[in-house]
Amino acid sequence: MSLLVVDDEAVTRRVVIYTLKAIGINVIDAYDAASALQIANQPDQNIEMMLIDINLPDMDGFALIGQLRAIERLSNSPIIVFTARNNPDDETHAREVGASGLLYKPFSTQELRDLVTHYIQKT
Hints:
Rossmann fold; globular
């Protein structure tokens, strides 16, 4: 299984990679929306799930989700939004654009594993 994580913070990407590698998940990482879309549009990438930060340098995560959902093979893949923002509207907005769930930063590695495992079992 492969998961795409999109976050402009290298530390967050490393934590996700390290945490999920331990449970056998291949993590592909991108630091901004443009590189995430480039990766997602490669037909040989078998992305089954995505973790997307809301605050990206070139586009907000909500807009990115819309573009990722437009890629046919990703249209039903679970997408988890993660954010350090404390905005009560974020979860509603995330679901409106097609996200499956939301994870607040800082998160524990156990929270991350549990959430990803939950969505993997649904696919």
